[in-house]
Design a protein that fits this description.
The complex is a heterodimer.
Chain A (H helix, E strand, L loop, with lengths): L3 E4 L2 E5 L5 E6 L7 E6 L6 E6 L5 E4 L2 E6 L4 E6 L8 E8 L6 E3 L3 E6 L1
Parallel strand pairs in A: 2-11
Antiparallel strand pairs in A: 1-3, 3-8, 4-5, 4-9, 6-7, 7-8, 9-10, 9-11
Chain B lengths: L4 E3 L2 E4 L5 E6 L6 E8 L3 E9 L2 E5 L6 E5 L5 E5 L8 E8 L8 E2 L3 E5 L1
Parallel strand pairs in B: 2-11
Antiparallel strand pairs in B: 1-3, 3-8, 4-5, 4-9, 5-6, 7-8, 9-10, 9-11
Classes of the chains: A mainly beta, B mainly beta.
């Protein structure tokens, strides 16, 4: 019940394309859903996050869509650039237990 | 503003030895979290310290332990190292009021031979 399932495992798009990464969860106690971006040799960097009472959040070229009834959320990257090539992790947390539960990651490659 | 720092960057040990990893949180952050990122296993929660106390523990054996010091820095100790402990160990920190927003350091790469 603590799992967060992420797909696809890898994704290749052309520059300017809109990659979409999907995640699904079971635990309805989760109350915060962040996305992290990780470059090789670096720690994950907090990218954008959403609470379950909001259906969409945009920050720059990154958008989270959230479907509470389906227990699914997704990350869209508008006008993707080669510099966006990284591994993206969705996560979920029940705030008072402090434990982020991560998806398995999506390796994104944006071709020039 | 300085981010989360971790030391050492790399650590090589042999099976059965002990490893000590260190973490300094972002200034003003009082909560420290430890995660393990092992190949094929993804990112897994290890421990959470807040105000010097262990608040939560992931599904890891007792040979994984740690502590948090009065200056909020933290130490992760792994005893009786096994080959499968080879991984990137990540430390994150947050404000006491924002357990959700965890900011990660660059990690310590532990290799067990």
């Amino acid at each position: 019940q603590q799992q967060v399932k992420q797909s696809p495992q890898s994704l290749i798009v052309q520059k300017g394309g809109i990659p979409i990464i999907n995640c699904a969860y079971e635990n309805t106690a989760f109350d915060y859903f962040p996305w992290y971006q990780q470059f090789p040799g670096k720690g994950p960097a907090l990218l954008i996050a959403i609470r379950p009472d909001v259906s969409e959040k945009k920050e720059g070229r990154f958008t989270i869509s959230f479907n509470k009834s389906a227990k699914q959320f997704s990350l869209h990257i508008m006008d993707s650039q080669p510099g966006d090539s990284a591994t993206y992790f969705c996560a979920a947390i029940v705030g008072q237990v402090g434990q982020l539960t991560f998806g398995s990651g999506t390796q994104l490659t944006v071709l020039p | 503003e300085a981010g989360v720092t971790q030391s050492p960057t790399h650590l090589i040990k042999t099976r059965g030895q002990q490893a000590t990893l260190r973490c300094s949180p972002i200034s003003g952050h009082t909560s420290v979290y430890w995660y393990q990122q092992a190949l094929g296993l993804g990112l897994q929660f290890l421990l959470w310290y807040d105000e010097g106390e262990e608040r939560n523990r992931g599904n890891f054996p007792p040979r994984f332990s740690g502590r948090q010091f009065p200056n909020y820095s933290s130490e992760l100790n792994v005893n009786a190292l096994e080959l499968e402990d080879s991984a990137l160990y990540l430390c994150a920190s947050s404000l006491w009021s924002s357990y959700n927003e965890q900011f990660f350091g660059p990690g310590t790469r532990l290799t067990v031979l």
